[in-house]
Amino acid sequence: MADEISTLMGNSKNKSVLLRLRNNKSIKGNLVDFDVHMNLTLNDAEELSDDNPVKLGKILLRGDNILAISLPEEES
C-alpha cells in the first residue's frame, strides 16, 4: 500500500494538487516533493476561500495537518 501511494505521489510531482487541511482550509499548489510522513513542499501555493484566494508562494506542509489530497488524473 505504501509503495502505491509513493508511486502516485511521485507521478504527481510538478503537477497541481488540492489539499484539505485539518483546520478546514483548502490549499492548491504544484507538488515539488514529499516524504514518508506525507510532509509536502508546494510551489505557487494558494489558500482557497470563498472570497479571494490568498497567494502563499512556496510552502512546506506537515503531513499530520493534511486530511485529504486530490491528485491530478493520470494521462492515458
Look at the structure and give the CATH class: Mainly Beta
Note the overall shape: globular
Q: What's the story with the biggest beta sheet? A: 5 strands, antiparallel
Strand order of the largest sheet: 4-3-2-1-5
Instruction: Give the strand content.
Output: over 45%
CATH architecture label name: Roll
According to CATH, what is the topology? SH3 type barrels
Count of domains: 1
Instruction: Classify the secondary structure makeup into a structural class.
Output: mainly beta
Count of β-strands: 5
- Whole-Å distance between the termini? 22 Å
Unreliably modeled segments: none
Helical coverage, percent range = 10-25%
List the helices and strands and how they pair.
Blueprint: H1 2-11, E1 16-21, E2 26-34, E3 40-48, E4 54-61, E5 66-70
Structure in words:
The chain has one helix and five strands; from the N terminus they run αβββββ. With 76 residues, it is mainly beta. It has one domain: SH3 type barrels (Roll).
Keywords:
SH3 type barrels, 5 strands, 13% helix, mainly beta
Task: Provide a compact summary of the structure.
The protein has one helix at 2-11, and strands at 16-21, 26-34, 40-48, 54-61, 66-70. With 76 residues, the chain is mainly β. It has a single domain (2-70), classed as SH3 type barrels.
